[in-house]
Design brief:
Length: 252
């Protein structure tokens, strides 16, 4: 009788443990560049996966360092380049990189301020030279492209003296909102949701660059099926309207 009770108890605890494991959150490490999209789509994503999502955001470069240092995660949603690098380093499972979206670089100014003309490269150059200062995230995915744009316009040295570098776009947006910086240059998707900041517009086509984002599944995850379901959801046509509303677009 005692043996049967022990067996029944063991079966019960295994069933409970299995149920808890199946309902455990899927841990996601994601870039600030896709935060607005993920925040909007989180309920639908959780429904598609059948599990809650525990999400942490940061710049792709910072999250990359966390993963390289051993941070536990199930799914990463970062720039495509970083996902590829993590795959080569054995942190992302081979063959799991799935392209999600891309986003161009834009300019933001303080809410209520006059919007400068940036429709052409000449107008953009004049606007940049006229502003008191610019700010952007020194560790952000768009930083290299901003420097590239300044070099192309021939104003890199001039802009260096009035550039305020920050750790992350949140801090850069805050500087524009409080008036301590005249403009922010970053991904459009990071400007649109920022309090106290308004989007002027994207950079002109001839100096525009796009940052691509992708999902990747950890080599150490015990939730591979949930990770695949999440990747499938974020790469589906159903997310296209939200991408557009948040300043992004489907990958090309």
């Amino acid at each position: 009788m005692r043996k049967r009770t022990l067996i029944a108890g063991a079966i019960f605890f295994l069933a409970v443990f299995s149920a808890l494991a199946q309902n455990a959150p899927v841990r996601v490490l994601a870039s600030n560049g896709v935060k607005a999209v993920i925040d909007e789509l989180k309920p639908q994503a959780e429904k598609a996966v059948g599990r809650p999502l525990a999400i942490e955001f940061g710049t792709s470069s910072v999250v990359k360092k966390q993963i390289e240092s051993g941070a536990a995660f199930d799914v990463a949603i970062l720039t495509s380049d970083v996902i590829g690098e993590l795959a080569k380093a054995g942190k992302i499972a081979a063959g799991t990189q799935t392209e999600m979206a891309r986003c161009g670089i834009g300019i933001g100014v303080r809410a209520g301020a006059a919007k400068p003309d940036i429709k052409t490269t000449d107008a953009l150059k004049k606007a940049l030279l006229a502003t008191k200062s610019i700010t952007y995230a020194q560790d952000g995915a768009s930083a290299a492209y901003i420097l590239q744009m300044e070099n192309k316009l021939g104003i890199a040295e001039t802009m260096k003296a009035k550039t305020i570098l920050e750790k992350g776009s949140v801090a850069s947006n805050a500087r524009v909102a409080d008036g301590s910086a005249g403009m922010i240059l970053t991904l459009v998707s990071e400007i649109l949701p920022a309090p106290g900041v308004q989007l002027v517009g994207p950079l002109p086509a001839d100096v525009q660059n796009y940052v691509n984002f992708a999902t990747g599944i950890s080599v150490n995850t015990k939730n591979a099926d949930a990770g695949k379901a999440l990747a499938k959801f974020f790469s589906s046509p159903a997310v296209a309207p939200t991408l557009k509303a948040k300043g992004m677009e489907s990958p090309r």
